[in-house]
């Protein structure tokens, strides 16, 4: 589609006031404290996949409400690894997808990292190879999809649970034997990019954040501009529930990627596509331009794809990430990563 959002010069200086709630930090501190009252219950189980150059593990840990969350963990095989703890990358998937199959997530392990690919609760049936994590929490009336589940109260919203799961995923990988807990990065595209921003704003001490064409920022503008799902789920809901707009946007203000981005302290590599009809460029720039404002102004970069839609940079962006993250992780110039030989175990906390 043609460029439809703000001119690029305006995008580069776009710093909207999104109406952040005064108790944003208190809301999330309470949410995470309630979740951490549950044991992490981390299990890391070896899986025979037929892959010989990477080791694969089926991971489960306690997320929001103590609910079990699944993930795949892959890492360079002990037989081909060197010595020393490895940096790790936690990856979050796009809207409606699940963790799929482990051989679909080999890029980061091939580059010398421990890779944890988190399943998204309640998703995994719209595309890809499926998911394995139910969401045992219900909601009130909602449009098909996930954006309007719990739309009238931030405590009930679907993404409160998902973002909390994602924070616990970082805690889980940091508890895995052979991982350097000081070198953990987070990444994802679209919905995964939005989850990445949430984690970057909630978890201190991350090595890096790499949100690609992130979803879930500047909700008010996204609903006004986007004419395709998922944002139109909100439009459809409000077209039926005509008196719920104030409550809906109040709930979304606790989930907005711009607010999380403001609090982030890790170096960041973003991507944006200027013809993206799903995540309008202005919503991505809103998060990028605000990124780190309350987190010490960390280094940040934005890769711009002027002629792409929601696919963004795709494989080209991953190639960019590989080199950028290697510099931060201390892997640049190495022929391969290092890992401690032997059995991988989880240290539950």
UniProtKB/TrEMBL annotation:
Q: Where is the active site?
A: 190 (nucleophile), 276 (charge relay system), 310 (charge relay system)
The protein's superkingdom reads Bacteria
Q: Provide the protein name.
A: Acetylxylan esterase
Binding-site positions, substrate: 95
Q: Pfam families of this UniProt entry?
A: AXE1
- A molecular function (GO) term: carboxylic ester hydrolase activity
Which GO biological process annotations does it have? Answer: polysaccharide metabolic process
Q: Which PANTHER family match?
A: CEPHALOSPORIN-C DEACETYLASE (PTHR40111:SF1)
Domain Acetyl xylan esterase per the UniProt entry, residue ranges: 1-327
Ranked from the top, the taxonomy reads:
Bacteria, Bacillati, Actinomycetota, Actinomycetes, Micrococcales
| Organism listed in the record | Pengzhenrongella sicca
């Amino acid at each position: 589609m043609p460029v439809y959002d703000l001119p690029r010069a305006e995008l580069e200086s776009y710093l909207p006031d999104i109406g952040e709630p005064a108790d944003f930090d208190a809301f999330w501190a309470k949410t995470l404290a309630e979740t951490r009252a549950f044991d992490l219950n981390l299990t890391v189980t070896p899986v025979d996949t037929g892959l010989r150059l990477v080791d694969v593990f089926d991971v489960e840990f306690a997320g929001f409400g103590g609910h079990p969350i699944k993930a795949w963990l892959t890492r360079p095989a002990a037989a081909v690894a060197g010595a020393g703890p490895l940096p790790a990358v936690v990856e979050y998937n796009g809207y409606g997808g699940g963790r799929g199959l482990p051989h679909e997530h080999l890029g980061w392990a091939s580059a010398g990292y421990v890779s944890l690919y988190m399943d998204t609760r309640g998703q995994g049936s719209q595309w890809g190879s499926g998911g394995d994590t139910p969401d045992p929490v219900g909601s009130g009336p909602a449009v098909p999809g996930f954006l309007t589940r719990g739309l009238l109260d931030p405590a009930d919203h679907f993404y409160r649970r998902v973002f909390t799961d994602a924070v616990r995923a970082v805690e889980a990988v940091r508890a895995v034997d052979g991982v350097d807990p000081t070198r953990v990065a987070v990444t994802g595209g679209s919905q995964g990019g939005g989850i990445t921003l949430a984690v970057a704003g909630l978890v201190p001490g991350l090595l890096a954040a790499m949100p690609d064409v992130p979803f879930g920022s500047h909700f008010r503008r996204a609903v006004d501009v986007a004419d395709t799902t998922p944002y139109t789920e909100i439009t459809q809901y409000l077209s039926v529930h005509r008196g719920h707009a104030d409550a809906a946007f109040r709930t979304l203000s606790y989930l907005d990627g711009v607010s999380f981005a403001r609090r982030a302290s890790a170096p960041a590599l973003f991507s944006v596509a200027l013809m993206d009809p799903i995540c309008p460029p202005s919503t991505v720039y809103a998060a990028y331009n605000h990124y780190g404002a309350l987190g010490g102004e960390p280094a940040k970069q934005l890769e711009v794809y002027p002629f792409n839609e929601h696919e963004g940079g795709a494989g080209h962006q991953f190639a960019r990430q590989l080199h950028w993250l290697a510099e931060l992780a201390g892997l640049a110039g190495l022929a391969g990563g290092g890992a401690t030989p032997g059995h991988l175990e989880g240290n539950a906390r």
